[in-house]
Design a protein that fits this description.
The protein is an alpha/beta fold and 1167 residues long. Among the domains are: 31 residues; 196 residues, Nucleotide cyclase, GGDEF domain (Alpha-Beta Plaits, 2-Layer Sandwich), CATH 3.30.70.1230; 210 residues, Rossmann fold (3-Layer(aba) Sandwich), CATH 3.40.50; 68 residues; 105 residues, Winged helix-like DNA-binding domain superfamily/Winged helix DNA-binding domain (Arc Repressor Mutant, subunit A); 108 residues, Alpha Horseshoe (Serine Threonine Protein Phosphatase 5, Tetratricopeptide repeat). Helix content is 60%, strand content 11%. Strands 3, 4, 5, 6, 7, 8, 10 and 11 form an eight-stranded mixed sheet that branches. A five-stranded parallel sheet has the order 14-15-16-13-17, with helices on both faces. A hairpin with a 2-residue loop joins strand 22 and strand 23. Helix 30 runs antiparallel to helix 31. Pfam families: AAA_16, Guanylate_cyc, TPR_10, TPR_12, TPR_8. GO terms for molecular function: adenylate cyclase activity; ATP binding. This is Adenylate/guanylate cyclase. One of its GO terms (biological process) is cyclic nucleotide biosynthetic process.
């Protein structure tokens, strides 16, 4: 490869410039890949024609401007702030930000059909009227400048908010005569405009302050009717003899750029929309329903066009082509919010999302921002970090969905705090069902956010019926009346009246549908079926009767007059979908940019398509258009010959594969659709499988099942044998998914199908092991063990099998469980199967705990935790933390118990496991309750109740309310204690929770003892005792004996009271519960004191106090000191009494106020 100019050898075909002579090679031959200079028409190496220069990005200054003299609006914009940025950041990072900034702020250039001429350092030169002349080019230039100023501020806030740097623009705009053409030598030309108009624009920019736009007198004269300006001022600029008069634009005087939407018979609906929107104090949902063409979209466009400019509009057009792509609607909303195209490269999307999340959640911690980003990126299909993947792997299926909705609500709330937002989803009936379900739950969480959701649809969406009726408004659009049809016809034809003779015929033909009316008028125009005289339109009777009688036919009739090239353009666009990128259409039709510009003009003029947005990705500009009415798109698509339709779909699928090879996963669903429509069933089948596997990896099990079903159907249609390995692995995956979704019968169904066609031994044993796991979860332990024993000596996964066998034995109470656990440890460790190893060690720890061997229990549970931590399995770590917390608490190691309960709460938060979060919170709350830290306990119990409601766990709610009853008793609010106990008891009895019901019986009995309602106590205690005995709940039997002892004591049956108290102590010791033991010891002291055995009573008090101190419970210690103080007073041992009262006051002072606080603080020192 040599330089054609000097003959020097080039290092590679990617060379952009000759290092010897400096010749630049901006072009690359598509055939041989050789570098070529700008002026090349044909490749200097192989002779192939070089692609038209119109195909090159205007950002890279490759737009050709025809040589001529013309009036052009010239805009210079210089970015300030990059120098400060360079001082704080790496040069490569700064370059990336500069490119992102220019991509972002130059969008209005393309939206307003301007041209970027060149970049000069940190400045950009923009032309309006050079390539695409418009009558309002000066207005476009000023509006562009104002939009660019808004966007640079937005970019600084959203992207650079954490960098301590603000970027700003200074802009100059001039309008006048220029010469367009090429400048440079023969080999290296540049195309630009020259003249005094350009020079003045640049000097206006140089004179503008940061954040200021200066426009010339010529611009002012051409735009003053549309733009509001400041008073004129004069500035002195270089090479000008006289000062230059200039102005600062301060706003648009009228609705420039807004669609002139004329609605017929829709004033009531517009007023209603405005009223709902204006009066909304919380989030509202508005449904606009009606048949196709009735004017739903036009109504919403009119409504949103009249909203204040400071209200953010998020408009999404649901496309039938993407209806089977899960999360498509939700991800599109997110892409729209952060202003990035889904087709943008992943790195840009990730950077934009992270900066935007950081911007709207700037008051939150770094971890909270990262978590929000992770879940939003998950929905948007972006790459996941290993840390986040570990979190997802540890989460339950339903927890992922709930946390996803929670994080979306956090994001939307943050967004709505910065500005008012309206979300519009047009044709939501075409949205994917996964997004709809998420959207419904999201709206429920946004009840306190002032935002509005507007959905259009042809029918009611049932999923939204679960939202509170007072937050949903439904507008059903009616057909136009005869007068309305006449009025619309007059609007479209620019006249005032319509001859009344054919009103009935026209109304019958158009059926009062505005779309049909428009197509009727277009057909009448095309066929020349009317005349206008004196502002009245007269239709030809025979002409009207001869028009097609249905909407599809009349649309086709109206399109029949288009030339062949334009028809092909619309056909190709209809295959892509409701929205389409021009670059995709160009690839399908293989035309250059100039031809594409010609092709889009007529469909735009006929209102068939309209520009939607501009996408700039890595310097490449792509315009997005959309069909104004999806009905027209459908008619065009259905009219394509089958062979042509298949060709378009095949070429489109192949183009996506080629263009997006690195990020193909995002397009799997679309490729399924295109290759199926192309008749390439093998390719479609491949992408069905890949899509199903992707959704399984993404924990989107419903969508995975849908695509596996389509995959199996495709295999069947291809005539493949059922024993095909493809079907085998699909059945296995489906079985696993149903298992994870806890649909065990369906899991067995598909695993047995897999078993029937499995041939390889490893497959057979793996399937059987999965079936055994299903049986275990169904509590069919014998069936599970039968399978395990059958394959035990054949399967390679012996460690996993032993762990499963151990789990079943543990649930059955089989003493061999511990032996198997210890045996499998060595095997699992050798195979580095740390997940199953952690599960097995956990089982061993629990088994030792049930045997009362606390040391071995702690040893194995700690090992289990460490192995789980080694592989970042947060689910196992949560379970181990809870188990360790309970054991440490039982052993009286309160600080360690508190440490592990807190750890389990944090880990549960991390994986959004609300069930374990509630369990950990309740356990920690009980610990705080026993320590006398009532406020902390109450906070945890209240939060547990709230979370229990959230996950609809009546069991967890029952436990939280039960403990709230205990708390209310301790602080002396007996009425609330009764209330919570009764609520908890009601749940326990309705849900069939006998032990929890019995615990509530104890609580209510205790209250009745305190309030003197002795007649109610014995029955409740006996009911509780029977349940505890049947369930072998030794710890609660200790409580029963203690309350029975109190009852006998208050009935003055001292011997019986002592007997029950001793039983309480024994049961507490048997269950190794020191807290219950100390309470029973203190009670025994009271009984003995009443019996006159003071020495023994003092001994009991001493033991209870020591236990309280050991358990770090100031609350229980205070009560022990107080009881002994009272006895010392009786014994007239005043000095010892004084000391105990002092200790009681110190201890009670370290806890939260309760009923004992007043008792102890008001007690007097003995004389």
């Amino acid at each position: 490869m040599i330089c054609f100019n000097c003959g020097y050898k080039l290092p590679s075909s990617d060379s952009k410039e000759c290092s010897l002579c400096g010749m630049k090679f901006p072009l690359k031959c598509k055939v041989c890949g050789s570098p070529n200079p700008m002026m090349a028409k044909f490749c200097f190496n192989c002779g192939a024609k070089i692609g038209s220069q119109g195909e090159r990005s205007s950002i890279q200054n490759f737009d050709i401007l025809p040589e001529s003299r013309k009036n052009v609006a010239v805009l210079f914009a210089d970015v300030s702030g990059f120098t400060a940025l360079s001082e704080k950041m790496d040069p490569e990072e700064v370059r990336g930000i500069i490119n992102d900034c220019f991509d972002y702020i130059t969008k209005p250039v393309y939206e307003l059909e301007g041209t970027i001429d060149k970049y000069i350092g940190d400045a950009v030169m923009v032309l309006f009227g050079a390539k695409y002349p418009h009558a309002d080019d000066p207005i476009r230039a000023v509006v562009c400048a104002m939009k660019m100023m808004e966007l640079i501020n937005k970019f600084s806030q959203e992207v650079l908010h954490d960098k301590g740097v603000n970027l700003s623009l200074s802009i100059g705009v001039n309008y006048g005569l220029v010469v367009t053409g090429s400048v440079g030598n023969y080999f290296d030309k540049d195309y630009t405009v020259i003249g005094d108009t350009v020079n003045t624009a640049q000097r206006l920019q140089s004179s503008a302050a940061r954040g200021e736009i200066l426009v010339s007198q010529s611009v002012y004269e051409a735009t003053k009717d549309v733009i509001n300006y400041s008073d004129p001022r004069e500035i002195v600029v270089k090479n000008k003899e006289k000062p230059v008069k200039c102005y600062v634009p301060i706003g648009v005087a009228k609705d420039y750029g807004k669609d002139d939407i004329q609605l017929v018979e829709r004033d009531h609906e517009i007023n209603l929309l405005n009223t709902i929107f204006r009066d909304a104090e919380s989030s509202k949902v508005i449904f606009v329903l009606g048949e196709v063409g009735i004017g739903k979209t036009s109504l919403i466009k009119k409504f949103t066009s009249d909203l204040d400019n400071n209200i953010k509009r998020i408009w999404i057009n649901s496309d039938p082509a993407y209806q089977r792509k899960a999360y498509h609607l939700i991800s599109n909303i997110l892409y729209n919010v952060i202003d990035v195209s889904p087709e943008t490269d992943n790195n840009t999307k990730k950077a934009r999302l992270m900066s935007y999340v950081g911007y709207i959640l700037k008051g939150r911690s770094k971890d909270e921002v990262q978590r929000n980003y992770d879940f939003l990126a998950f929905v948007m299909g972006l790459d996941r970090s290993k840390d986040f993947q570990d979190i997802l792997n540890s989460m339950e299926y339903h927890d992922i969905k709930r946390e996803l909705i929670n994080q979306l609500s956090i994001f939307i709330k943050g967004l709505c705090m910065n500005q008012q937002v309206v979300f519009i989803v047009d044709d939501i009936q075409f949205a994917d069902s996964v997004s709809v379900d998420i959207l419904v739950e999201l709206i429920k969480l946004l009840f306190d956010v002032k935002t509005t959701f507007i959905f259009t649809s042809t029918y009611e969406i049932e999923a939204f019926n679960t939202i509170s009726p007072d937050r949903i408004y439904t507008l059903k659009l009616k057909k136009l009346s005869k007068d309305g049809v006449s009025f619309q016809i007059c609007q479209l034809l620019g006249c005032k009246n319509i001859d009344g003779g054919l009103n009935d015929e026209i109304y019958q033909l158009t059926k009062g549908n505005p779309l049909y009316v428009r197509e009727f008028v277009n057909a009448a125009k095309r066929e020349g079926k009317f005349v206008i005289k004196n502002n009245t339109v007269y239709f030809n009777l025979q002409g009207v009767i001869s028009l097609p009688r249905n909407l599809e036919s009349i649309i086709l009739s109206n399109l029949s007059g288009l030339d062949e090239a334009t028809t092909r353009f619309l056909e190709a666009a209809s295959v892509i979908g409701k929205e389409f990128n021009l670059s995709w259409v160009r690839s399908l039709l293989d035309v250059d940019e100039d031809e594409m510009e010609r092709l889009i003009k007529l469909p735009v003029q006929l209102n068939i398509i309209s520009p939607k947005s501009v996408r700039i990705t890595s310097g490449a500009v792509d315009r997005v258009y959309m069909f104004e009415r999806d009905t027209v798109r459908e008619v065009i698509y259905n009219s394509i010959l089958n062979k042509n339709r298949q060709y378009y779909h095949r070429k489109l699928g192949e183009m996506i594969e080629s263009r997006h090879r690195g990020e193909l996963e995002y397009f799997y669903e679309i490729l399924c659709m295109h290759f199926e429509a192309a008749g390439l069933n093998k390719k479609a089948e491949e992408y069905y499988r890949k899509t199903a596997e992707k959704y399984k990896r993404d924990f989107n099990y419903d969508s995975a099942l849908e695509y596996y079903d389509r995959y199996l159907q495709a295999i069947k249609n291809e005539g493949d044998e059922p024993s095909d390995s493809k079907a085998l692995h699909a059945y296995m995956d489906i079985g696993e998914i149903y298992f994870l979704m806890a649909e065990y019968d369906r899991a067995l169904e598909y695993l047995n199908l897999a078993l029937k066609i499995a041939e390889m031994a490893d497959d057979i044993y793996s399937i059987k092991l999965m079936i055994a796991k299903v049986y275990e979860e169904k509590d069919q332990y014998n069936e599970a063990l039968k399978i395990i024993e059958e394959i035990e000596h054949r399967i390679r996964q012996i460690g996993k099998l032993l762990q499963q066998k151990c789990s079943i034995f543990q649930k059955q109470g089989n003493p061999k469980a511990l032996e198997i656990a210890e045996k499998s440890e060595e095997i699992l460790l050798r195979n580095k199967d740390y997940e199953n190893l952690a599960e097995t060690l956990n089982l061993a720890g629990i088994l030792y705990y049930t045997r009362g061997d606390m040391e071995n229990a702690l040893f194995y549970l700690n090992k289990a935790y460490n192995y789980a931590e080694k592989i970042n399995n947060f689910r196992i770590m949560v379970n181990e933390s809870i188990n360790l917390g309970i054991i440490f608490y039982t052993m009286g190691m309160i600080s360690k118990a508190q440490e592990y309960f807190n750890k389990s709460i944090e880990l549960s938060k991390k994986i959004s496991n609300l069930a374990n979060y509630i369990s950990s919170s309740i356990n920690l709350g009980i610990l705080y309750l026993d320590k006398g830290l009532f406020r902390r306990a109450e906070q945890l119990f209240m939060e547990s109740m709230e979370k229990a409601y959230q996950i609809s766990s009546m069991y967890k709610l029952c436990l939280a309310q039960l403990n709230m009853g205990d708390l209310m008793y301790e602080i002396g609010d007996f009425a609330k204690a009764f209330e919570y106990y009764n609520k908890s008891l009601e749940i326990a009895e309705s849900q069939g929770l006998p032990v929890e019901a019995a615990i509530n019986y104890l609580g209510i009995a205790r209250l009745n003892l305190k309030l003197g309602n002795y007649e109610k106590v014995p029955g409740m205690l006996e009911n509780a005792y029977k349940i505890f005995t049947d369930a072998e709940e030794i710890s609660y039997i200790s409580d029963y004996y203690r309350y029975r002892s109190i009852y006998e004591l208050q009935s003055n049956n001292l011997d019986t009271a002592l007997e029950y108290c001793n039983k309480s102590i024994s049961a507490a010791m048997e269950s190794r519960n020191d807290m219950k033991k100390l309470k029973a010891l203190r009670l025994k002291g009271i009984i003995l004191a009443n019996m006159g055995d003071y020495a023994e009573a003092l001994q009991m008090y001493e033991e209870s106090i020591q236990l309280a101190l050991q358990l770090e419970s100031d609350y229980e210690a205070a009560k022990g000191f107080y009881r002994r103080y009272s006895l010392f007073c009786v014994l007239e041992r005043y000095e010892e009494a004084r000391q105990d009262l002092e200790e009681a006051r110190k201890a009670i002072g370290r806890i939260d106020k309760c009923r004992w606080t007043q008792i102890i603080q008001q007690s007097n020192y003995p004389n």
